[in-house]
């Protein structure tokens, strides 16, 4: 039989956003739980070293930071529960959140379910993730100071991130499977006119190789099938990001065109009592620091919502 639990604030997702929200909600004496389907930490569990998170001048590993976030929120009374949330009913003043093992009645809900970067799905991609392969220029660009890097993608984010990477790297080779870009005209012009950017048109990465760190890529000509080798220590993949919102697809919560949750600056969604923040929300910068800020904002907004509804 499904166990039913009651909370003032139920947080879906135990990444940086969810654990920061849990710290603030539990310190405000609200009965708070974080429901996490895997392990607390979320995306930061995939990263060896984080250099751009304030307060850690020598960097910090993702798993260490996740442990600190978890310890700090649990210290003030937040509960961490393991379950996969499958649906939410937002119609009543008390929200019903359904998981595989539990059902929750919550006076307020914070959705902090993050998302995942789309992958190429080629051999070597996972092996060299964090060892040459990256999905975030702001996070990892500095590891490639004055060396050449490659970028995969032809949309706005691929070009925006390529232009950013030109500031610290020696050069950027954009690998694109077609001979035309999908990005906006203005970004195309800037990239095409940038002397540090060159293009490998009609090309696809088929495998990443190296010895400990990534060293070179096998490329395939998408028209002829001909194979070639590109010696390069860095590969940035920008072929999309999918937010984890399947479980709220029928809830009435509003999304943008990319499936991210629309919020205002207080992290309020269109449904009173439902808040969202971090990588799952529309227009997120998808950085650790901004995720933490969103989590804190969402928790403070939930606190004010609960105060007003007494
Ligand atoms: C490899 C890598 C390196 C990075 N490096 C940096 C860096 O150096 N600096 C930086 O600022 N940012 C970095 N980032 C980005 C940063 O990690 C994210 O912006 C941030 O962690 C997002 O936090 P979040 O809590 O919003 O989402 P997430 O971290 O995605 O957490 C969401 C959590 O929700 C859980 N969840 C999802 N659906 C459900 C469900 N249905 N039921 C229950 N739980 C669910 C997930 O399991 C996950 O734990 C990096 C990201 C990656 C992938």
What this model shows, in words?
With 310 residues, this protein is of the alpha/beta class. It has two domains: 3-116 and 241-308, FAD/NAD(P)-binding domain (3-Layer(bba) Sandwich), CATH 3.50.50.60; 119-237, FAD/NAD(P)-binding domain, CATH 3.50.50. Helices cover 23% and strands 29% of the residues. It has six helices and 17 strands. It has helices spanning 16-27, 62-75, 137-140, 156-165, 185-193, 288-308, and strands spanning 3-12, 32-36, 79-82, 85-89, 95-99, 102-111, 115-117, 133-134, 148-152, 171-175, 197-200, 203-211, 213-221, 227-231, 234-237, 241-243, 274-276. The strands form four sheets. Strands 1, 2, 3, 4, 5, 6 and 17 form a seven-stranded mixed sheet that branches. The chain has a five-stranded parallel sheet with strand order 8-15-9-10-11. A hairpin with a 5-residue loop joins β4 (85-89) and β5. α1 runs parallel beside α2 (62-75) and α4 (156-165) runs parallel beside α5. The longest helix is centred in the last third of the chain and has 21 residues, at 288-308. It is elongated, with a radius of gyration of 21 Å. The two termini are 32 Å apart. The structure holds flavin-adenine dinucleotide (FAD). Residues 12-18, 35-38, 42-44, 46-47, 50, 52-53, 84-85, 112-115, 135-136, 139, 244, 247, 278-279, 286-289, 291 line the site of flavin-adenine dinucleotide.
Secondary structure class reads alpha/beta
| Oligomeric assembly | single chain
Q: Which word captures the global form?
A: elongated
How much is the radius of gyration in Å?
21 Å
The major pleated sheet works out as: 7 strands, mixed
